[in-house]
Amino acid sequence: MKDLEETENPGIFIEDSKWGIKFWTKNLIKGKKVYDEKLINDEGTEYREWSTVKSKIGAALAKNICPLNLNEGDFVLYLGAASGTTVSHVSDVIGKKGLIFGIDIAPRVLRQLYFLAHDRKNIVPILADCNKPEEYDYRICKCDFLVQDIAQKAQVQIFLKNLKFLKTGGRGFLAIKARSIDVTKSPIKIFEMVKRQLEEAEVNIVDYMDLEPYEKDHCVFVVEK
Amino acid sequence: MNKTVYTNIFGTFMLKGDKVIAKKLFKNLTDRKNKLKYEKEYLKKSVEKADSDFVFPKDKTFNELFYKFNMDKTKKDLIKSVRTDNLINQAINNIDDLNRVINLLSKRLREWYSLYFPELDLKIDDNEAYAKIVSTKKRTTLEKEFGVRTIGSDLSTEDVNQMKSLAKEISNLIKLREEEKNYIEEIMSYHCPNLMEVATTTIAAELIEHAHTLENLAEMTSSTIQLLGAEKALFRHLKNKRARCPKHGIIINHPFVGTAKHKDKGKAARHLASAISIATKVDFFHEGTLDNKQGKLLVAKLKKQLNIK
Ligand SMILES: C[S@@+](CC[C@H](N)C(=O)[O-])C[C@H]1O[C@@H](n2cnc3c(N)ncnc32)[C@H](O)[C@@H]1O
Fold first, then answer.
1. Which domain does A10 fall in, by range?
2. Same-domain pairing of B121 and B33
3. What is the pLDDT of residue B1?
4. Does the pLDDT at position B197 exceed 80?
5. Between B117 and B234, the higher pLDDT residue
6. Which of A167, B6, B196, B279 is the residue whose CA sits 20 to 30 A from A51?
7. How far away, in angstroms, is A81 Cα from ligand 1 center?
8. Which chain A residues touch B64 with a CB distance below 8 Å?
């Protein structure tokens, strides 16, 4: 029997044991793992451990990021969905009434996301380039929560382009990989530059942080529209 | 509040705010091509104009339609997504795998067979020839051929047969590697004949593999192509100017660069990269049927530039 407590983020549970802090979500599809995460049973409910090293939201939670404002029944737009590691936890949180549009440009990972969506019918996999919203705008709708995790030089511009899909009052989670923007500059300089770019675009930054020691040279921003 | 008309992947809607007040759901993905007709019907009915604010109500049925139509579309897109480039990339990577596996197994075979006839390892360097001899010839025959009396142990037929089985598998893998090389040559001869002519088959395939697609390669500058495959060294150089800037990546294995004198390697790499860049553009942007004429001309020009007979 574990001591799981719901965090300020509904649907995300924390376990504070002598081995450290772990995060869990209720498994939407009982008995099935998505990656190599641990499953536990607590009073009849099955939970999946949210990896802090394979998922940037997982790492940000461990670093005590501000509330995400992600709720059951939400619509979510996820840019850079890959094979669905993080997507699966968001899928747990929003539950059967929610919907998560997972976009990725690479067929190799999207095939896996497609199979995952067979089980989890709140995941909508879309093969597209996030830099070209006009190619998928008719396939999605405005969302309550926006996530972006793509290793691209134009990361910030892509995020700004896709902000139009976020509802007013909704929050966005942006993960930045410094090396993809410029390998020669120091990560800290790049994070400052990104912050300035967001501010110039009049994006309201609620919180930001680097992800050490979970991810090297990465930082994340939570913004609100 | 104004009424607006909005079309998404599964239907055309008359909306008021985010409330649907009328809808026409598509029968399937292709029905969407009639959207103008459906939109017109609504536009007649005192609706302001088409609008795309992307607001949409949450509703179980609509969620299911978002899911279903997008799954259908994604399935089609995935089926369409495989290109010649993907096939080339898998095959060239597999040749790499085979090289490693063949080397690994050959080392084992040499050690294993040396218990029985160690003289062969000294006489035969080539792995292909070694495997072939082990699988087809008897030790007594070999002793005669090489004129030696072995210092290997006498082993049972059963023991030796196991070595022969391994040797046969190695020969098969070598055959498979040849087949894959021919296969790559075959598909590249219509996909990128000029690139292949200039760069040679293996290097052409490796360049595509590195750039992921012929399209990406066609969009690269010749100085990027010159350094393709030397990213690690380039990265070291960018981070620390004292680290030397690399002169070439994958193309170092090209005979024109490989055989050039040390001081001429940089020049050879530069000219070769420029020819590769032109050939790739010809292959990617061509219209109609494609041959390797341009590639042949580029090679002739290169030979002149580099004084190669
Ligand atoms: C670091 S991975 C995302 C991992 C994922 N967020 C998770 O935690 O499970 C980055 C992904 O972004 C995708 N990507 C890169 N550029 C993209 C673009 N322009 N449009 C869509 N996806 C892109 C890549 O294919 C890759 O799968």
1. 4-51
2. no
3. 65
4. yes
5. B117
6. A167
7. 6
8. 121
Do B205 and B123 lie in one domain? The reply is no
Of the candidates B53, B54, B78, which has its C-beta nearest A110's C-beta?
B78
C-beta of residue B26 within 8 angstroms of C-beta of residue B32: yes
Q: Which of B63, B67, B235 sits opposite A183 (nearest CB)?
A: B235
Neighbour count for residue B9 (Cβ, 10 Å): 22
Q: Do B201 and B286 sit in the same domain of this protein?
A: yes
The reply to whether ligand 1 has any atom less than 6 angstroms from the CB of A49 is no
CATH number at residue A19: 3.30.200.20
| Residue B215 to residue B273: CA distance in whole angstroms | 16
Handedness of CA A82, A84, A90, A91 (dihedral sign): positive
Residue nearest to atom 16 of ligand 1 (CA): A150
Secondary element (H or E) of residue B62: helix B60-80
Based on the fold, state whether residues B64 and B164 are members of the same structural domain. no
Q: What are phi and psi of B274, to 5 degrees?
A: -65, -40
- The residue whose two tokens read 């921003």 is A221
List all residues 6 or more positions away from A116 whose beta carbon is below 8 Å from its beta carbon: A34, A83, A84, A87, A88, A123, A125
Give how far B6 is from chain A: nearest CA, Å.
Answer: 9
Contact call for A142 and B7, based on CB within 8 A = no
Number of domains in chain A: 2
First CA to last CA across chain B, in angstroms?
80
Contact B62, B56 (CB under 8 A): yes
* Model pLDDT for residues B266-288, shown as the tens digit of each residue: 899 999 999 999 999 999 999 88
If you search the block for the tokens 């580099």, which residue do you land on?
B306
Which residue of chain A has the CA closest to B75? A114
Query: Which residue segment(s) compose the domain that B135 sits in?
Result: 84-185
Domain count, chain B: 3
Over residues B154-176, the mean pLDDT reads 97
- Closest-lying ligand 1 atom to the alpha carbon of residue A177: 1
Q: What are A46's two structure tokens? A: 């099955």
Place B101 in a pLDDT band, splitting at 50, 70 and 90: very high
Interchain CB distance below 8 Å, B63 and A99: yes
